[in-house]
């Protein structure tokens, strides 16, 4: 651990480290959530079914998740500055390709490239904060990191809807691409490199470490629990929530975007709430597992209410669903406690593989279920049958409940050190 430099340079150094990494995660979440508002426009312009829209949105998470295992090795070997800066160039190219796409296939390839390009934004940022800041500040820094994702989600809600009154979606993606490329240059020429102590472990040793993770049964329970939770929470929040508000609750497009805005506020609040509670428990030598279980269970309860078609207080219910769902991110604290500190990059990216594959499957499968029912017209726009949402959300609730139950059944092994 190398603390930040003392004196006047400390502020400059903190800014040169913290702000670029926060900006990267902010942009990654804008890309992640943008289809929640743009979805109807893209579906209309490219004649997409619900399955097609779900696949297009989810492929970001597929490429993101697919790269997590090699990403962990790269982060541990080359450091977060170089890996994040290099991959952001790919994200910029994907954003530009998306802006100029003329076919569904090009949209999919471009969005997959965006997902690959921003795949290091979260894990690279967490690793940078672990390297540069003392342990007693890590929990707060990670909560700050996650909150930037919430800010990105806010930007992709009402502000994006307002921007669409003056710009088309292609111009918006050109702007996002330019901002991403500028950030990549910032990583190359301004962000400092952390001084390494010793040489990175050989690739063979890193591979053996991955083997140890894969063979750990408790890790699988935690990974499946977060994967099934995020399969429901993030897949709905970043795409299908606004469609549900339109088709089931009868919101118009602007009101649905406002609902997404308040859910994003709840996302930020949830990260800080669970992060602070987890830090308090850690100071007393206690595991965050009970917080994980409580948050996931309450999120599941909200999902059941939504699956039943309750529309009274719909935005409040969705916000509570997202708020409690942020407790699942404590899985990273739970899993990393079982392994040596130098394996943190590989552990966290292995967990992220389950998280993002779960989101991809959740978005695609939800669209496939909605396609099984005849289309409807809600708030003046073509939409999906409310019965489809009941089945889709009900299925996600069962999946999330199964993952939570399996974790709870093996809680003793999860709490037992390796």
Main traits of this protein?
mainly alpha, 418 residues, 19 helices, two-stranded antiparallel sheet, single chain
Task: Tell me what you see in this structure.
The protein is built from 19 helices and two strands. It has 418 residues and is mostly helical. A two-stranded antiparallel sheet has the order 1-2. Strand 1 and strand 2 form a beta hairpin. Helix 1 (8-33) packs antiparallel against helix 7 (121-132) and helix 5 (80-99) packs antiparallel against helix 6 (104-117). It is globular, with a radius of gyration of 21 Å. The chain starts with 7 loop residues before the first helix and ends with a helix. Mean pLDDT is 88; it is low at 1-8.
Average pLDDT number: 88
Question: What composes the largest sheet?
Answer: 2 strands, antiparallel
Strand tally is: 2
Percentage of residues in helical conformation: over 70%
Radius of gyration over alpha carbons?
21 Å
Count of separate DSSP helical elements: 19
Strand content: under 5%
Regions with little confidence, pLDDT below 50 for 5+ residues: 1-8
CA-to-CA gap between the ends?
24 Å
Order of helices and strands: HHHHHHHHHHHHHHHHHEEHH
The rough form would be described as globular
Structural class: mainly alpha
Strand order of the largest sheet: 1-2
């Amino acid at each position: 651990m190398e603390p930040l430099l003392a004196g006047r340079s400390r502020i400059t150094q903190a800014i040169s480290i913290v702000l670029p990494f926060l900006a990267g995660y902010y942009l990654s979440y804008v890309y992640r959530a943008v289809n929640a508002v743009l979805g109807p426009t893209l579906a209309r312009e490219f004649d997409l079914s619900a399955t097609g829209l779900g696949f297009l949105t989810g492929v970001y998470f597929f490429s993101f998740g697919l790269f997590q295992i090699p990403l962990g090795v790269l982060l541990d070997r080359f450091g977060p500055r170089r890996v994040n800066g290099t991959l952001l160039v790919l994200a910029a190219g994907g954003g530009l390709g998306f802006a100029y796409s003329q076919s569904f296939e090009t949209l999919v390839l471009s969005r997959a490239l965006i997902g690959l390009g921003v795949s290091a934004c979260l894990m690279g940022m967490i690793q940078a904060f672990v390297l540069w800041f003392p342990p007693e500040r890590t929990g707060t820094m990670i909560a700050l990191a996650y909150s930037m994702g919430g800010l990105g989600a806010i930007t992709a809600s009402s502000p994006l809807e307002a921007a669409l009154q003056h710009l088309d979606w292609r111009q918006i993606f050109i702007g996002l691409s330019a901002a991403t490329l500028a950030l990549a240059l910032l990583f190359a020429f301004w962000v400092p490199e952390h001084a390494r102590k010793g040489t990175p472990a050989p690739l063979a040793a890193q591979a053996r470490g991955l083997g140890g993770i894969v063979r750990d049964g408790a890790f699988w329970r935690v990974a499946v629990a977060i994967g099934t939770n995020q399969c429901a929470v993030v897949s709905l929040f970043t795409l299908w929530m606004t469609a549900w508000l339109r088709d089931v609750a009868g919101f118009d497009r602007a009101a649905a975007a406002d609902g997404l805005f308040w859910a994003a506020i709840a996302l930020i609040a949830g990260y800080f709430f669970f992060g602070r509670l987890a830090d308090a428990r850690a100071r007393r030598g206690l595991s965050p597992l009970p917080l994980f279980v409580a948050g996931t269970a309450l999120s599941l309860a909200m999902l059941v209410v939504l699956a039943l078609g309750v529309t009274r207080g719909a935005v409040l219910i969705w916000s509570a669903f997202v708020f409690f769902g942020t407790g699942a991110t404590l899985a990273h604290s739970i899993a990393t406690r079982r392994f040596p500190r130098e394996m943190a990059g590989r552990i966290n990216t292995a967990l992220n593989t389950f998280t993002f594959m779960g989101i991809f499957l959740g978005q695609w499968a939800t669209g496939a279920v909605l396609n099984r029912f005849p289309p409807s017209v809600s708030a003046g726009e073509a939409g999906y049958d409310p019965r489809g949402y009941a089945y889709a959300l009900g299925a996600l609730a069962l999946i999330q409940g199964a993952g939570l139950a399996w974790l709870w059944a093996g809680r003793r092994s999860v709490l037992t050190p390796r």
